[in-house]
Design a protein that fits this description.
Among the domains are: 145-253 and 339-353 and 457-528, no CATH class; 259-331, no CATH class; 357-442, no CATH class. Strands 5-4-3-8-9 form a 5-stranded mixed sheet, sandwiched between helices. The mean pLDDT is 90. It is an alpha/beta fold. The N and C termini lie far apart (61 Å). It is built from 20 helices and 9 strands. The chain has helices spanning 11-42, 56-59, 147-159, 164-173, 180-188, 192-208, 247-254, 265-273, 278-286, 295-304, 316-331, 357-365, 372-397, 401-415, 422-433, 435-438, 452-468, 474-492, 497-504, 516-520; strands spanning 124-126, 132-134, 211-221, 224-232, 237-242, 261-262, 291-292, 339-342, 352-355. The chain is 48% helix and 8% strand.
Length: 528
């Protein structure tokens, strides 16, 4: 409405105009606050904390019966979890004539930390033909720092999130003569085997998973802002840091280290869904070249076909490249029947895609109401969504065609209603348009209803960024992503990260740990 005829407006029209203006002002205030927080962050100050989470997932968990009902569960025997390394008998000062009645066992856990310097006197022999033969070092010795020290450094820095200066001070305080540069070498040099295992974990996860959740967060690398993408489920976690958060970047990450581009039926189907011109698709098919070793070969092919010279919308180069990347993902057996669950960020909308209900409800939770009527409407709508979410959780444990039909009809009743609050109605219309992604769980009850797992996983990257800043070398970036991902994967597989590192570094007496990719690829046991 134009302000010039405001005198001719009715009372209802004036209220609608005021509500609209208030919403616009609130939007401008949020924009200004976000800019102020970003300026403060760039200056080194803390930004304003985000709005508190709605708590929908925890609030809809089944509650225990009233009165406690049943026998309380004990903590279990902690003695059975301990291995006794030393047994000492203590004498008692008993008077003469006392009768011996056995022993009273008392367990004490302790930790032994200290410097240990070993000098290996390696025999040297001169053979009759003039060659020198020197005794080999024991297994696990690589350089002048032993496997236990290298394991300790990796655990403290990546899992313990200890900063480099504090790690230097800690080791020196324990009597280790070591410099900051030497610790940096222990953290990032000669770690190709760990990087390969992290890559293989991603490949095994993408090939065996029924679903994955994804998320991203900011990351600093080479004094520039980048993005760290998380991919994982209940059996593995993988991180990849790049300077882009586009769909092209996400599809490239899903190749899990492969560099090729593939044109197949899946690639052409993707291009058609993204409205690529039939003439462009026909050019790609008629050429009869369907596999390209790397980005340079793919770009040369597009140039030869004249596709890079086309100036139309959507950009044919971008869509064709996305299709070729998606073709490569499926050609390597990744995500062949898996669902990607995301928070509705556009770059993650590829393949079979489902949406997080917690993020969907958060949109309603974060609306700013300016009247009692709007606040009541918002509370009522959030209550309806919470009840529906709880019904979806019950459906996951007891699905049936009849309940599926009921939930479909109930979704329409909730998200097709009109509340009289224009902003909320527009939001409900948006959520209703996402019905297939929000209700993917009706066809696949094993899917999670949220991306809380990804947010929990990626928190370690956020903490590392806050306490250690960014990385300076590509090797340092890759090691940070790999070790944080391996630590999370070990936790999901119930493997101590300490034992995992000991097995890979050949620490004496450490139990053998299978390669994580083999464990990730084993199908998870299904509940009875």
């Amino acid at each position: 409405m134009s302000p010039t005829n405001i005198d001719a407006l009715s009372a209802d029209e004036l209220r609608s105009l005021v509500r609209t203006l208030l919403e616009e002002v609130a939007g401008l205030r949020r924009t200004v606050a976000a800019q102020r927080d970003e300026i403060a962050r760039l200056k080194g100050g803390p930004g304003r904390p985000d709005i508190r989470p709605s708590g929908m997932d925890k609030a809809t968990q089944p509650r225990p019966p009233a009165g406690g009902g049943g026998k309380p569960r004990g903590r279990g025997s902690w003695r059975a979890q301990l291995s006794i390394h030393e047994e000492r008998t203590l004498k008692a000062a008993a008077p003469v004539g006392s009768r011996f009645k056995g022993y009273a066992d008392y367990l004490v856990q302790d930790l032994v930390i200290g410097a240990k310097v070993t000098q290996f006197r390696r025999e040297c022999w001169l053979t009759p033909d003039g060659k020198m033969v020197t005794a080999s070092l024991p297994e696990g010795i690589d350089g002048h720092f032993g496997p236990e020290l290298r394991r300790f450094v990796l655990v403290q820095y990546y899992q313990g999130q200890v900063t480099l200066p504090r790690l230097v001070a800690l080791l020196r305080g324990l009597g280790i003569v070591i410099s900051k540069r030497q610790i940096l070498r222990l953290l990032s040099e000669d770690k190709e085997s760990f990087l390969k295992e992290a890559r293989d974990v991603l490949r095994a996860g993408l090939m065996s998973a029924a679903w994955v959740t994804v998320d991203d967060t900011g990351a600093r690398h080479k004094a520039a802002n980048g993005y760290c993408t998380q991919i994982g489920n209940d059996r593995f976690t993988w991180f990849g840091t790049t300077f882009s958060k586009s769909r092209l970047n996400f599809l490239a990450l899903l190749r899990a280290g492969h560099q090729d581009y593939v044109l197949n039926e899946s690639a052409f189907a993707y291009m058609r869904r993204r409205s690529l011109s039939d003439r462009v698709i026909a050019r790609l098919i008629e050429d009869q070249t369907f596999h390209f070793a790397d980005a340079a070969a793919w770009r040369t092919h597009l140039d030869q076909l004249g596709i890079t010279a086309l100036k139309v919308h959507p950009d044919p180069v971008t869509v064709a490249t996305e299709g070729a990347l998606w073709g490569s993902v499926l050609a390597h057996g990744h995500l062949s029947d898996a669902v990607i669950v995301s928070d509705d960020a556009g770059q993650f909308a590829v393949g079979r895609h489902a949406l997080c209900w917690v993020h969907a409800e958060r949109l309603v939770h974060k609306l700013e109401a300016f009247s009692d009527r709007d606040r009541v409407t918002q509370k009522r709508m959030r209550g309806l969504i919470w009840c529906y979410y709880s019904a979806l959780k019950r459906y996951q444990s007891n699905s049936s065609p009849a309940r599926r039909t009921q939930l479909l009809q109930r979704f329409d009743r909730i998200f097709n209603r009109r509340t009289g609050w224009p902003t909320l109605d527009k939001l409900l219309k948006r959520l209703n348009a996402n019905k297939p992604e929000l209700l993917m769980v009706l066809d696949r009850p094993q899917l999670p209803l949220h991306t809380n797992g990804s947010e929990n996983d990626i928190r370690c990257q956020v903490i590392k960024r806050k306490i250690s800043g960014g990385t300076r070398s590509d090797t340092g970036r890759d090691c940070r992503d790999a070790f944080l991902g391996l630590a999370k994967t070990c936790a999901k597989l119930n493997i101590a990260f300490w034992d995992y590192l000991g097995a890979r570094l050949a620490a004496p007496g450490n139990p053998q740990i299978p390669f994580l990719a083999e464990l990730v690829g084993i199908p998870a046991p299904q509940p009875p």
